[in-house]
Amino acid sequence: MNTSPFNSATQSSAEARQHLVDELVSKGTIRTAAIRKAFEAIPRERFVPFFYERDEAQKQKAWTRYDVASTQDYTNLIYRDDALVTQVNERGWPSSSSSMPTVMALMLEALDIQPGQRILEIGVGTGYNAAIMTMLTGDPRLVTSIEIDEGLAQQAQQALLSTVGPVNIVTGDGYQGYPEHAPYDRIISTASVPLIPPAWTQQLAPGGRLVTDLHGSLASGFLIMEKAPDGTISGHFQERPLHFMPLITEQLPQASFGTVKNLLQEPRSELFPLDTNSPFPAILENHSYRWFLQWFFPNTHISRQNMGDAEYIYLYNLKHRTILRFQQLNGKWAGDVHGAYPLWQKIQDAYATWEVLKRPAPQHYRLEINARNQTILYVGTLSLLLTRTKTIR
């Protein structure tokens, strides 16, 4: 007799799960037996009974819904190593998802959950990750997960109750953590933040570990942070970025969607051609440079636009109300600046400094949070004080 709590899971689901786990093991993203067993045990379709995919071929790029009740071969679709969009907001943007299993496994391996440890998760989403963590810690009552969306929280709670038991699901702002069950041995955030919220470090137990996506205005970083027994907090970064959706909170400033259009109304202060030997704008596609630039010169954002034969890349700084526009026409690039701030010079200075530092990638940085709750990034001989930046949702 099958004594698993998932008796109703079909054999085809178990086979698809096993295939996914074997794939993750072969990639090296699952490395420990406990995490392998947890992924083998938890049926993803219980937590993702439907998802959305965007049809890029359609002019309007409409979302198509797939669900377990009416979609043929849903089991194979659900066990792909892909992130699955589970909610779309009124603007047509994804607002919740089930993370890519590879990313889940990498974060859980980094988190290193041991039986009996107390866990805090920021962003329950579907509840799938919380279920995996419950298997690792051994008791649903040791897992607390915060979700700002009440509807998502309720759906996740029902799915968790029917699989692993009564996980503590809290509806609230994840930026504040959840002090009622603190201190936590492990904290994981499945939403990105530009700065580590003070509540998270305060609620992390001495000897504890925190894993999150530290994402400034331009690039993502996979941060693993530890709190020493004396309270000292330090961290390092993995090579792979995470690319999570931003944490929804009123505690972080938000940039408006009309930013580019508005800034282009500022007087033009500079016009320049670009030599074919210039690293710009191609270097703006380099993740390591974008990672450096966002901390060296905070509040700088990027966007691009295609209009007929012309391609535009915009770099803009909200604090200084200045925008740098690169435009390509007939294969040649040129640039101009709207606003009073010397943004083009600042971007070139950042590039020169990055070159002197030998083009460091995120894994070459280390992070510390000092007694004054200041977050400092160190790379080579350079130290960078991180400040709050506006995020765009």
Description:
- The protein is an alpha+beta fold.
- The protein has two domains: 11-238, Rossmann fold; 259-356, Double Stranded RNA Binding Domain, CATH 3.30.160.
- It has eleven helices and 19 strands.
- The protein has helices at residues 11-27, 33-41, 44-47, 74-78, 101-111, 128-137, 150-161, 198-203, 259-263, 287-296, 343-356, and strands at residues 50-54, 63-67, 84-88, 94-98, 119-122, 143-147, 168-171, 184-189, 204-215, 220-227, 233-238, 268-273, 300-307, 310-317, 322-329, 332-338, 366-369, 375-379, 382-386.
- A hairpin with a 2-residue loop joins strand 13 and strand 14.
- Helix 2 (33-41) crosses helix 6 (128-137) and helix 10 (287-296) crosses helix 11 (343-356).
- The protein is globular and about 60 Å long.
- It starts with 10 loop residues before the first helix and ends in a 7-residue tail after the last strand.
- The model is unreliable at 1-10 (pLDDT under 50).
- GO terms for molecular function: protein-L-isoaspartate (D-aspartate) O-methyltransferase activity.
- Keywords: Cytoplasm, Methyltransferase, S-adenosyl-L-methionine, Transferase.
- Its main location: cytoplasm.
- The gyration radius over C-alpha positions equals 23 Å
Uncertain residue ranges: 1-10
Rough shape?
globular
Q: Based on the structure given, which CATH architecture of the largest domain is correct? A: 3-Layer(aba) Sandwich
**Tally of separate helices:** 11
- CATH fold descriptor of the largest domain: Rossmann fold
Tell me the CATH superfamily of the largest domain: Vaccinia Virus protein VP39
Q: In the CATH hierarchy, what is the class of the largest domain?
A: Alpha Beta
User: What portion of the residues fall into strands of 2 or more residues?
Assistant: 25-35%
Biggest sheet: strands, sense, closure?
10 strands, mixed
Reading side by side through the largest sheet, how are the strands ordered? Answer: 7-6-5-8-9-10-11-17-18-19
